[in-house]
Structure formats: structure tokens, C-alpha cells
């Protein structure tokens, strides 16, 4: 049996983009004999707990991740916001999970400008315990490759990510989803991999379960953009290849790059994350009760009655 694990995958929680339900993800991984599967929704961890519970229940290792948005400027800048690039992040352990939570939260609270963004300085401060993949065609390296940046600039960009995550925790992400741009990007990424000794990994940017489900993504894209399916000028999905492929299908595509496929297993094996989800073991912050109150209940009651008098 061919070995492969999906490490770049969008669920319904990639709002108005992904159309995969959590149950479908877990069942597909189980049916294909995958030991693990990742969830990497756009800029959020909304589905992380549901995904973790359901995958664990069925004996599939859940890899909690996120496709974050990285700005080349400051995440707090609004006027000259800079370019926004995609970056795939995976939590290797509890520290990585906590950093993912921090990245997601701050991207909304401090970095939101059209998208929930972070900058590289913030990533550097919260990179421990994370494994990063260079992203889809909207990643910084792929975008610069397609724009014709020279090798010096590409090396500089690559080094910026290696500095943030470390050489062992950053992988060049290869995708072949039927687009001509994939061939151009993959060729250059393989050159960079060989020249600078950076590992590669194969992904499929999964957005739906089966090829025929492409129409579902077309529908939610129409909702997102306020258009109709019969509008000839509407934004369209260029490929039906971003479905939940079997290991055999992925090997048929990347068979000559065995390392890229087996590295999905290596990454999955590295992930060691156990979440404490026992509702009876709740961790609440300590709060010092000021004088003259003898208990938290006494203080709460007093504040409640004072508020009642002020309002009514």
C-alpha cells in the first residue's frame, strides 16, 4: 500500500471556500488507510476541536494546522498594507498548538485588513513547535517565482523562512493540481531544494471530497463574490483536482519524487499533540478577591445588586 498523508486541507470552516465536512475528512482518511490527516483552514482554527475529537475517536492522528496570511509589511499597517501571502502551518506539539492559537487570535485582533494577517516578525516570536510549508501558488516563494524574481531574491525569501522556523521545520510545498503554473513553480522549488538543502513535501490543497463536488465550491464562491452561476464573468475554479485524493493518486502524480511523498509521513510521525478536553478538568485563571469581600460569590452578588440599582 502506498503511503501518503494530506497536510494541506480546507474544511467548511474555510468559510465560503472549502466544502468538506469534518466527518467526510476523517472517513476519507480512514477509507484510504491514512494514519493521519491535517486540517489547515484559512486563517482560523474554528474546526480544530471538532476535528481533533472526531479523528481521535476513529484512530486517525489529527494534525491541527492553519493556512495563515503573511504580509510583507507590518501586520498593524493599514494604509500601505503590503502583499499578502499564504503559508501552511502545522502544530507539532502543544507549544506549537498554543502558538497557532496566538497567531490566529492576533491576526484578527491586530492584523486584520481584508484578511487576518501576521507579519514575519510576529511569526518569528511564535514559531516554536510549528512546522511550516511554503504554501500554494499564493505563497510568497511561488508568487515570486511566477513573477520572475531572480535567484538572489528567491534565496533571500527562502532564508527568511528558514530563519523563522529552522531548516528542519520548513518544507518546500509541491502541488500539481492541473495548472500550468504548478509545473513552473515545482521546477524552481526543486532547484532551490537541491541548491540549499531544503526538504520538499507534496500536498494537494484539498477543498472538496470528490471531483464532481467542484460545483459545490463554485456555488459558495458565487455567494462569496455576490454573483450567479450563470454569470459568464464570475470568478471560476480553474481545476477540479483539489479533491481528497487517495495515496495511489498522489503517487501517480509525484511518484518520481518519492521523498516529497514520504515526507508527509515523516511530518505526521513528528506530530505529538494531546489536547486536554475533559470538561471536568477546567483551568480557570486565579483571581485575587479584594477586601472586604470574603468570597468571589459575595463580590459578584454585591456588584450585581449595585448594577441593578444603577440601571433601574
UniProtKB/TrEMBL annotation:
One Pfam family this sequence matches: PHP
Xref: SUPFAM superfamilies: PHP domain-like (SSF89550)
Chain ranges of the Polymerase/histidinol phosphatase N-terminal domain: 5-72
Name listed for the protein in its UniProt record: PHP domain-containing protein
A molecular-function term among this protein's GO annotations: 3'-5' exonuclease activity
Species of provenance: candidate division WOR-3 bacterium
Entry-linked InterPro entries: DnaE2/DnaE/PolC, PHP_dom, Pol/His_phosphatase_N, Pol/histidinol_Pase-like
Source domain of life: Bacteria
A single GO BP: DNA replication
